[in-house]
Amino acid sequence: MNPPPNALLAATDFLDIEHEAVRAFTATAIDGAGTDREKAARLFAAVRDQVWYDPYSVSEDPAHYRASFVLEMGRAYCVPKAVLLTAVCRAAGIPARLGFADVRNHLQTDSLRTLMSGSDLFVYHGYSSLYIDGRWVKATPAFNSELCARFGVPPVEFDGEHDALMHAFTADGTQHMEYVRDRGVFDDLPLAEILAELRSSYGSVMVASPGPVADEFTEPAAVSVPPDDRTRPLDSPAYRR
């Protein structure tokens, strides 16, 4: 197989791999790792669990999709988390790109279903496509381990060799995730396409901050936000970890 183009190791506006925070995060995660497989597995676990999955954090601001911003906030939905994993893999010398698919998620809260106009179809679910040992593998770091425990779903594990996508079933056999449409892979984030599809599928409310929501997706630190602070935007320093 031909080697991937050098562009898949390069920085972009979204994949800001030269940012001090991105480089520090990468160096800490891969410290002591000897192979690309081990580096990728460690980076995957770090992104999965150190950035809380927050489906209510969809933003129209391109700056909110930069890898460095995702690290700063410590919470994001699947697309920015995939951006971060792709960026740190490039920073570690692993060629990486972004992939997207429409998925049907059978685990939802009433609040999230309402925000999605009653749908359980998540368009443009993000994952990373990584070039390791001469072939491409897919990995989605979306759901952090603590959140998985709340829903009774085992966390997705990645060994750097096999695809690591969302589980089709929960631990008790209940249907969980179904991939229904492949959106392809991209060298950089196609943000305009993603936001346009979100508006088309769910209406403008999906890309406008609903404010903090108290349900299973709520990060523990956010539960205790004072009532008079609940109108602050999601990118307010009050909500930063």
UniProtKB/TrEMBL annotation:
Residues 26-141 form the Transglutaminase-like domain. Signal peptide: none annotated. Pfam families: Transglut_core. Residues 218-241 are annotated as: Disordered. It comes from the Bacteria. This is Transglutaminase domain-containing protein. It comes from Nesterenkonia sedimenti.
